[in-house]
Every structure is written in structure tokens, then in C-alpha cells.
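Before a colleague's protein record goes any further, I have to sign it off. What it holds is a sequence and that sequence's fold in C-alpha cell form. My question to you is simply how this chain folds and whether the C-alpha cells agree. Thanks in advance; the entry in question is below:
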Amino acid sequence: MGLKAKQVIIAVLSIAILVVLGFVVFTEKEHILVKRQVVVKSDSAGCVHCHGTEGHEGLPGKDPGIVAQWRASEHAVQGVGCMDCHGVPKAGEMPDEKNPRFVVKMAWDKNSGIKTMTLLKKNGKPVERPDIWNHEGAQIVTDVSPRTCARCHEKEAEEFFNSRHNSASQFIGSVDNFLGRFAEGPAAANSGCQQCHGSVVRVSKPAQDGNPPLYAPDTWPNTGIGRVNTDGSWGSCSACHSRHEFSAQVARRPESCGKCHMGPDHPQIEIFNESKHGIAFRKNLAHMNIDVPGGDWVLGKNYTQAPTCSTCHMGPVAPHGNHKGLELTHEVGARISWTLRPKVSIQPKGITGKDGKVILKGPAGRRADMQQVCTTCHSQAWVNNFYVQFDQAVALYNNKFGKPATAIYGFMKKEKILDSVPMNEKMDFLYFELWHHEGRRARHGASMMGPDYVQWHGFYELSQHFYTEFLPLAQELADKAGKGEQMKKFIEATLHGKGGKDWEKYHRWTKGLSKEQRKAMLNWERETYESRKK
């Protein structure tokens, strides 16, 4: 065969390949177009036209970005339009207590953990929310609450209702709130605290002559996850899912949680990033099918490469071994056995409703569920030993630092060595950072396998500040108040504990080690670090 004939054959084959590739690309695009077919219902068509790129009366659209985000959403494909979320149902369309047209009153019994939501009435009639306004012939609201989302996502809304996320704004009276509002200043709280925790959204000027109501600028914009909405309900679904695409993928990504769970007091995103889990996530993201619909993103079935925050705390888990699997949950505490937030860590009890329904399992049940997540990728022995290490770290913090520091600080308040004004003395800040910053970092680092946060950002700083600043300052202030001897005895008794066991275990080293203790330490170091040569 001649050279020219070969060239012709190669040219024909190349054209054929290009045609086939073009057909594949075309069909894929057609498939995407069919899959992404947007359904614009008649009651929302005007919204899409006016706010989209088409505009109104020859003018550019008012909010083209919002409409573009909605078009990219699963809502748009399913025919869930603007009025389904922003429209206000008429009275009688549904039970009044479920209708976001009316205001509800929330209550939270912190002893039992049970939350209740009741309809607010005046003169025997339901109270309408204050931000309803007439717009282009329709009654709408801007502040969309979980009660609206619950019309389609009832199970998710109920789980979120019972979660700590839902009540994140209910920290009024706490030291954190005092710091933001007074020690720092209102603007710091508005742009800082409230954007994660949420605040009470207020209407400063009602709707008038077709103009929308004005929300008080110190409360809006606000997507804090515990936001108190104008219908009285708590929570903001868009805190995680983000307007107006409301993407499951966005909520699953660690960055979404990292918006709030970061920084010196609760650096979960930084800990995740340094952990083996975070490294695996970044390496394997392309293989994790993170963009599939909610119920289809199942650990052990649709992906196994790496976990995200959502995987461990919320995501569904496929059955494996003796485990029956787990359903998706929006109760982010459903798998957490310890709470690592307070001055001293505790294992919260379970919550059972008045009807006998289990709202939150007890500590053992929550831990068993989390272990189902772990054993999808790890052996049971590996998981068991991890929890031994984790529990030991929590116990170390509680017994060596948390309980003694809290007792000594409380003694100083009781004896009026410190005044009653919060956060106005060095000791107030020192104690606060011991548990709120350093103590949390150590505990969260242990829970998420971030060794640097356990050690150098955690227990190292705890040790340094507890022994070289907190204890000396407590004694100094007591001496100045004429109560030095009382303080000395109280500190000694607190550090020694019952029968002196705490002193020997945790604090004896500050006075020098005995020969026996030095020998025990040397043996431990040899067993831990030396090679096992026979």
C-alpha cells in the first residue's frame, strides 16, 4: 500500500473519530439539558421574568444572580418556584400552627431537652407575622423560615428543630454574649457572633404603599443557624444549604461547616484539614460523588474514599457487618457521646418526648451510631482503641485542668476576691481562655485526630497558663484581698483531690519527681519510643 493511500485512510479514520466524539459530546449535552429542564410555574413566572436577566419594561433584571442560582437548583427542576418559598399561604390552607403566615412561640426546657412550638394568639386569633407585604398582586416575605421548608421537608425540619444548631442563638446571658455585646461592642456582635449563632430578626418599618418592610440592620442580613425568624421559629436552613441553589453538595463540603466551626475556640475545620480524614478528602474529592441527591449519598455504597463533617455527623451509612446502617439525620448531635464545649465535658443524657418517642439516644447509643460510621472504613479494634485514646484525653482535661480551674475560679467569686462584673479583670480572661480556647482545642483535636491541636495548641498551652499564670495570679489576688491563707489551702486541697490521688497523678511533678517516678517515666519512654529489638 502506497504512502498516499495510508494518508487517506488515516484522514478518514480521524474524521470518523471526530464525528463520534462530537456525537458523544452532543448527546451528553442533550442529556444534561433534559436532566436540567427547569420548570417555571405560572405563579413564579413573573418573579423569574422581572428578577432574571430578561428584566421588566426593557430594563435589566433586578437580581439576575439569584434567578441563575435558582435555575441551577434541584428546586427548579422539581418545579419548586419563588412563590413556594417566599409566598405566604392563606389562612385555612393548612393547620395554623404549621402555616408560616402566623407567629409561633418557642420554648426550650433545658432540663429535659424538649422543645415546644405553640401558636401565638391575640384576642383568640392567630397573630400574623409583621413582614408580610403585597408585591405585584401577591403576598410575600423575605425571611424564609424552617416552617416553610417543613412543608416539603418535614422529617429534616423536625430533626433540625430538635438539634442544638436550631437553638444556637439561645446563648443570651452567657459569657460569650457578654463579651461580644459589651466588652467588645455591639458592632462586633452584629457582624461576628450573630452571623453564626443568629439573632432575633426585627422589622424596623412595616410595609407601606407597595414598598417592602425594612428589617432592622443590626439583625439583617443574617443566616445564623439559630436565627429567630419573624414568624417566631428558630433556625435558618440557608446557613448550610445557601440561597438560592440550596445545594446538598454545598452543605456536605467541610468549608460550609468551617464558616462557623473555626478559630481559636473551636477550630474543627483546621483540625479536619490537618487530619488524615482531611488529607484523604482533598485527594479523593473527584471520586466521592458529592453532588448526588440527598438520599443517594450513602457511605459504603456511593463513596468510601474519605469522610466530610456531614459524613460522620449526619450522613446515611450502608449496612455492613452486624450493623444495620444509619439514615440521614439533621440532628447534628445524634452521634456525639461527649460534649466538648463547656468548662467541664459531660455526656448529655438522652431525650424522650412526652409521647415516648426517642428524640435523642443516650451516650452509649450515640457512640454506637458513630462507630457504625467509623467501621465502614476501619476495623472494630481500631475504632475501640481510638475511643480509648479519646476518652483518656477528655478525662485528662476534665480532671487535671477543667475541674480544678473551675473550682478555684468559683472560690474567688464566692469569697469576693474577684468582683461580680464579668470579663473586666485579667483573671476573667485567663480562666475563660483556659476552658473556652485551649481546653476546647485539646478536646476537639483528640476527637478528630488532629495531633497538633491536642498538643501544641491544646495541652501545652493549658499547662503553661494553668501552672505559670492561673495559679500564681489566684494566689496573688487572694493575698491582696487578705485571704491568702484561705486560698493557699483551697488550691492545695483542690489539686490533691480525694485521698491525694489527683496530686500524685497530675500535679506532683511541680515539686520534683521521686526516684520511683523518674524510673517509671523512663520505663514509659522506653516502651513508647524505643524499637522492639529482641
The radius of gyration is 29 Å.
